[in-house]
Every structure is written in structure tokens, then in C-alpha cells.
Specification:
By secondary structure, the protein is an alpha+beta fold. A six-stranded mixed sheet has the order 2-1-8-7-6-5, with helices on one face. The chain has a two-stranded antiparallel ribbon with strand order 3-4. It has a single domain, classed as Nuclear Transport Factor 2, Chain: A, CATH 3.10.450. Helices cover 21% and strands 22% of the residues. The N and C termini lie far apart (157 Å).
Length: 222
């Protein structure tokens, strides 16, 4: 009997040491931390979108005239053709007074080739009245870019800078145009300006873009 009581006492002592009692929570696992619901304060690293322009502004009349003049200087007939007015074509006048009945006009895509051997009648020479019968190449050299007009000393917008005995009628023939006069006031001082020359580019707007509809060579005439 004594031995039985001793065994029960030992069991009770061991049970208390091992936490087998129902009221001891010292060995219960700690609850895990719940995730926070507040938003992150870290800055976003995503790039800010930059608005892009959907279209490039069309060249101005001045910019178009400059591009055309550069094409003439470089004798780039293909580039010149791309600027010919789609409806009116490109008229060539050897003098400031445009003779519509005799001046030649070429549609876009019909400009003669640089080496075209055909002789064209471009009008009549001032003074003699003889026909101006030249290839496109020879006419270009004599009545288009016979001076370095891209580096002209004077420049006028809707203003005729060279005046002689012949009336320059660009504004009358093309009342809705914007024209540019590339002008040299003279080359030989002994001629007192009677050797002045101008190249006039006549531009008109079509569907929002500028095109050339006339190239007028102007100079002192008898």
C-alpha cells in the first residue's frame, strides 16, 4: 500500500514538471503576425509617359522656297519635281513679265530629264524677238540658275526687288500666291546696276502644303 502511494506521488510530481496540466498555457505557440493592410509608402519606379506629337508641322512657305532653291542649286530635278504644284504644274518664264501664251508649263512627273536633247520654245528673246529655242539643260543654265541665287544678297517676300523697263506681273498672274525674290542688285560697278538679276519662286498652298507653280527669271531688259 505504501508502495502504491509512493508511485502515485512520483507521477503527480512528474506531471507538474512536464506541463501536462490542463490550465498551463506556457508552451502554447505564439500567434503569427497578420500582414498589414496599409498601402506601401515606397515610391513607384515606373517611368512617367511622355506625350508624343502625333504629327509634324508642315514646312512654311519660306522653308519650302529654301528647299526648292537648294534643289535648283544642286541641279536636282527629281527633288524639284516633288515640289511641283499638283494641279497647276510648274511654269517657266525667262523674264519678269510672264507671257502666259508662250511660257512653258510642266506637270508633276513631266519635267524634262537633265540630258533631254529636245529643243523647247520657251518664249522670245527681249529686244530681238527671236524665239528662245533651247534644251531644258541650256534653258536652266541661262534662265534659271545662271547666278548663285541661293546666296543672293537681297531677299524679298511678296516684294519685287528688281525693276526695269518690263513690268513684273507675278502678282497679277498668281494673286493667291506667296512669292520670293532672290535678288542681286548688280555685278559690274561700271554698269550702275543695269546688270541686276532676280530669280522669283512663286508658291501656292494645296491641301495644307506649299508647292511651286512658277519660276521666273527677271533681269534688266531693253
Amino acid at each position: 500500500m505504501w508502495r502504491l502511494l509512493s508511485i502515485l506521488a512520483v507521477i503527480m510530481v512528474l506531471g507538474g514538471c512536464l506541463g501536462l496540466g490542463g490550465n498551463d498555457n506556457s508552451l502554447s505557440p505564439m500567434p503569427s503576425a497578420s500582414p498589414t493592410s496599409e498601402p506601401s509608402t515606397e515610391p513607384s519606379l515606373a517611368p512617367t509617359p511622355i506625350p508624343s506629337s502625333s504629327s509634324t508641322p508642315a514646312p512654311t512657305a519660306e522653308e519650302t522656297a529654301k528647299a526648292i532653291m537648294n534643289a535648283l542649286k544642286q541641279q536636282d530635278t527629281e527633288k524639284l519635281s516633288s515640289y511641283i504644284h499638283p494641279e497647276k504644274g510648274l511654269l517657266f518664264s525667262p523674264y519678269g513679265h510672264i507671257e502666259e501664251d508662250t511660257a512653258l508649263t510642266f506637270k508633276a512627273g513631266e519635267l524634262p530629264a537633265w540630258d533631254d536633247p529636245k529643243l523647247y520654245k520657251w518664249g522670245s528673246y527681249d529686244g530681238s524677238g527671236e524665239p528662245i529655242s533651247l534644251t531644258f539643260h541650256d534653258y536652266f543654265k541661262k534662265f534659271v540658275y545662271d547666278q548663285n541665287f541661293a546666296e543672293a544678297k537681297e531677299f524679298g517676300r511678296n516684294e519685287i526687288l528688281g525693276q526695269g523697263n518690263t513690268l513684273v506681273n507675278v502678282g497679277d498672274i498668281y494673286p493667291d500666291s506667296t512669292y520670293f525674290d532672290y535678288h542681286f542688285s548688280g555685278f559690274d560697278p561700271e554698269l550702275s546696276g543695269m546688270d541686276w538679276e532676280s530669280l522669283i519662286l512663286v508658291l501656292e498652298k494645296h491641301n495644307g502644303a506649299w508647292y511651286v507653280c512658277a519660276i521666273v527669271h527677271s533681269q534688266w531688259t531693253i
